[in-house]
Write a sequence for this structure.
């Protein structure tokens, strides 16, 4: 609306005409408030960043290195220092990185779960951006740099690289804010938090992957036990999860969920 108004005003001036009457100052302020995106909240941004795994790979202080793996193919993938990399992006660039996998220089952010992060709302992206901008600069001189083997580089160039987590889905339209209705909120939390480990449809990555189908394993949990799992990492058996991975992830990431968010997530998984 504001853009259309400015265009109309420009056309009137170009034609030698003036607008009939300028809008009242209060109306102008209301329009500006409606059209100007609200600045993000760094505290909420840290909470969202934990839930979706940013702090797991890049650490709470952004220094990077939480994700550092070497593949059998000879690739070395390392989560970079965000307090350095953020200077390469304006806010729109950060949104494009999270949602479209577009880096500042056009390379693919291999290892970054864009297929999951693309579903974050405008509000959540703004909050993560505010958290990232607020981080003090941290030096991490021993941090390795990501590198691909010659064979993997050729696959990337040919579009045949077998890992595509860093590629977005075509036509994705993220919401302005997280849903408020419980079932929709549960789906939003699930699809922006769980596919990285449990598959894009939450039914797992296949028989060779240890992460189970959430649709199946959820049936073993009462609402109370599910809430305990999310907050403490203790499974329905009263012990750590089978591999310990979900227990660690729950304590590091999902303990930040509110009671209402946990209930909404359980409601959605029960509906599957």
């Amino acid at each position: 609306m504001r853009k259309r108004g400015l265009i109309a005003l420009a056309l009137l001036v170009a034609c030698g005409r003036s607008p009939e009457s300028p809008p009242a100052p209060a109306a102008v302020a209301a329009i500006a408030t409606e059209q100007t995106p609200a600045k993000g909240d760094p505290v909420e941004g840290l909470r969202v960043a934990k839930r979706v795994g940013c702090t797991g790979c890049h650490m709470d202080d952004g220094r990077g290195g939480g994700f550092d793996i070497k593949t059998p193919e000879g690739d070395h993938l390392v989560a970079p220092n965000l307090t350095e990399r953020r200077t390469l992006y304006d806010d729109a660039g950060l949104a494009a990185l999270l949602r479209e996998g577009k880096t500042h220089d056009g390379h693919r952010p291999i290892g970054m779960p864009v297929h999951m992060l693309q579903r974050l709302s405008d509000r959540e992206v703004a909050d993560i951006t505010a958290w990232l901008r607020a981080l003090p600069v941290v030096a991490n001189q021993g941090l390795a740099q990501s590198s691909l083997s010659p064979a993997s580089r050729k696959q990337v160039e040919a579009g045949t690289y077998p890992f595509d987590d860093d590629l977005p889905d075509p036509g994705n339209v993220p919401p302005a804010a997280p849903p408020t209705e419980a079932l929709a909120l549960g789906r939003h939390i699930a699809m922006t938090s769980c596919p990285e480990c449990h598959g894009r449809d939450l039914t797992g990555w296949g028989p060779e992957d240890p992460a189970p189908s959430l649709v199946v394993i959820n049936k073993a949990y009462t609402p109370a036990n599910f809430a305990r799992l999310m907050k403490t990492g203790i499974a329905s058996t009263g012990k750590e999860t089978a591999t310990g991975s979900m227990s660690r992830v729950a304590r590091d990431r999902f303990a930040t969920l509110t009671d209402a968010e946990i209930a909404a997530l359980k409601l959605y998984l029960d509906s599957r």
